[in-house]
Structures are given as C-alpha cells and as structure tokens.
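subagent[fold] <- orchestrator: predict structure for attached chain, return tokens only, no commentary.
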Amino acid sequence: MSGPEAATARAESGSPIRVFWVYRSFIWRSALHDLRYRYVGSALGMFWNVLIPLAQILIYAAVFSSVMPVRLAGAAPANAFTIYLCAGLLPWIGFSECVARGTNCFLENANYLKKLPIPEQVFVACNAVGATLSLGISMALLFLLASVFGWKITWAWSSIALVVLLLQALGFGLGLALGSLNVFFRDIGQALPIVLQLWMWLTPVVYLKEILPPALQAVLPCNPAFPFIDALHAAIVWGEWPTGWHWGVMLFWAAAAPLIGYFVLGRLRPEIRDVL
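subagent[fold] -> orchestrator:
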C-alpha cells in the first residue's frame, strides 16, 4: 500500500488529531476554495463573503436604532440592541451552517468518498473550517462597526475567538454524527432546518433571557448552545469575561459532541460508502 491509501490507513488507525494533521493542507485548501468559489459566476465573486454579513449588520443597525428603537437595560447607546442582536445571531448563523453542511456533506461528496481513500471526517472538517472562516469575517466586521458606532471595546472581547472556536467544535461534532446518520435516514437532512430554527428560538439569541418565565430560565443551562451565546453576549455587550461556569460547560460540549460524532461514525463507517 502506498500513496493516498497508505496515508489514509495510517490516519484511520491513529487518533482524530492525527487524521486532521495528515490532511491539514487538504482541509485548509478546500475551505479557502469554498470561500473563493461559493459565489462563482457573480460579478462581485468572493466579495459577497464580506458584503452579505456587512449588509446584515447594517440592516439590523438601521431597524433597531431608528425604525424600531430598542434599548437594553445597563447599555446606554441607542444601538446597544443592534450589537446584542449581532453578537448572538451572527455566531448562530455560523454554527447553523457548520451543522447543516456537516449533515449533508457525505451525500454531497458521495463521488469523492467512493473514489478517494480519504477519511469521512475530513469532509466534515472542510465544511466546519469553511463555516468558521465565514463566521470570522462576520465577527471582524462586527468589531469594526462597533468601533465606528462608538461602542466600548474591552479586554473581554479577546475571549470571543476561543468561544467561537468552541461553538464550532460543537457544530462539527453534531455535523459528524448527523452526517453519518443522514446517509441511512435521508429525512434528517430535510428536517434539520426546522430543528435549527426551533433551537434558535429556544436559545436567547435575539431576545434577552430575562424575559423568559423563571421556569424556562431554570432549564436554559440544559441547552447546549446557551453557554456559548450567553458568553458572547456577556463579552460583547456588557464587557464581561465569561464565567468559570461558561468555560466549563463550553469545554464539555466542545469535547463531548465530537466524541459522540466519532462514535456514531465508527459504528456506521463500514456501510457508509456502500450505501452512498
């Protein structure tokens, strides 16, 4: 055995970290290729990667600071709710993209999986890295526009990158598990957008957690997405570092989800390429 087959055999027999190390160049090039050619054929091309999140932020700013002004308690600027909304919604969009694309990636890459000896999880990682790069662009634009708005940038903002990476690790794990199951149960991919939409409204992404009844507030910690969104709101809106509870729960889900994903993939891997 030599060439790609040998590399795949070594990767699959090693740890997940080894797999990603062996295929690191492939993952990175695939993610960049996706960003460059996602809007191929359009006049502006890859610039849409910047223009779309920029337009979203500006629309939120116009609506919630002028048309329907909403103010946050403890946050004086008129555009505070715009920042709050973007701080939760932009990461959620990136997370949802990570989960959704991971769920469908085995079906979308069926021809490659049949012909190339590349471990299945590498394709999910390509999508996760691509979604994370898109999210990084959105968060960078939020940082720039918050500065333009005169928003106070504190040291707590330095925690954002790690929180986002942990959130995307959760998305990668879910995408890996659901992607493996979706090969056999195709309804999963069809139902997922509905589930993600419902999940978003069960998470304080676009509303304050304080408006929920006490009974619902008490069960929020059971929501895997809640500590990530809450930590981002705390850092970006109120300039507060995520608490020890935030970090502990985020690290737990960022580790547990990929482990579950690998377990599901391991059980189904012998049949996946045959079913595809």
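orchestrator: received. Logging for downstream: The chain has a mean pLDDT of 86. Residues 199 and 223 are 9 Å apart (CA to CA).
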